[in-house]
Specification:
Helices cover 53% and strands 4% of the residues. With 254 residues, the protein is mainly alpha-helical.
Length: 254
């Protein structure tokens, strides 16, 4: 675990001149994460206070036997994108580029650096570069593409999640409408078909289960999600709040 540069608890303490607090926090992190899993992050974005901080981290690391790791914050892809990023920040915060106090990064070095650039910028701490490679070698994440890892909802023997979800929705429709319009039924079948095709029935059942538990125990809830599932959710959640939220839909009924 490389600790963050400038914005970390230890880093802030060092920048404020509170070495005692920085040392005690580092000792606490050592107890929590272990010596082999803790690193001080060394960065170089051409900022003076960052260089001073690196020297302090190096000194504290030697004192507490905490290794350094070379890292770099990436906010945009290429160095030439720095100004575009400033424009985006100004738009995001409702500020003007001519505002002296507008939010901006402190240099144009927050881009994705190459290995050679990292060696050049962190040349003062070569061991930190080696440690970054060691951390990368310890990472072993295998992402299986085109395969879902959603949990399975327990259903009765001989039934499927698709069938159970459809049954719940149809029961909900009957409770809401004594004689549902054909367009309601068609819309529900369309949404169910989409969910089945995407293999999301288990997901909807899991959400239904904990929402039902919350309502049964008078726990306040709210719903958020994509619009195409409005009618289905209206049927199987049967929430007064959900009804009010969807009165704008031609297929919703209050």
């Amino acid at each position: 675990m490389p600790l963050p540069s400038l914005n970390g608890e230890i880093e802030n303490a060092l920048l404020e001149g509170n070495e005692v607090a920085a040392r005690e926090t580092a000792k606490l992190f050592l107890q929590i994460f272990g010596r082999e899993n803790l690193y001080f992050s060394i960065q170089n974005h051409s900022i003076d206070r960052e260089q001073a901080l690196n020297r302090q981290l190096n000194s504290l690391g030697k004192e507490l036997d905490i290794k350094l790791a070379a890292t770099n914050q990436v906010h945009y892809l290429d160095r030439e994108d720095a100004f575009s990023h400033e424009c985006l920040l100004a738009i995001k915060n409702g500020e003007k580029l001519q505002d002296d106090d507008r939010t901006r990064l402190e240099s144009d070095q927050y881009y994705l650096k190459t290995g050679d650039e990292m060696v050049e910028y962190i040349s003062e701490y070569p061991e930190s570069l080696e440690n970054t490679l060691h951390i990368a070698e310890r990472c072993n994440v295998v992402l299986e593409l085109n395969k879902q890892h959603l949990p399975k909802y327990p259903v009765e023997s001989g039934s499927t999640a698709d069938e159970y979800l459809e049954r719940i929705c149809l029961e909900g429709m009957k409770k809401r409408f004594s004689s549902p319009k054909e367009e309601y039924f068609n819309r529900l079948q369309y949404e169910l078909a989409v969910i089945k095709r995407m293999k999301f029935s288990d997901y909807f059942l899991i959400v239904w289960d904990f929402m039902k538990y919350a309502r049964d125990h008078q726990i306040l809830t709210g719903l958020d999600g994509v619009r195409p599932q409005v009618h289905l959710s209206h049927m199987y959640f049967r929430s007064p709040m959900w009804t009010r939220l969807n009165t704008s839909s031609s297929l919703s009924a209050s």
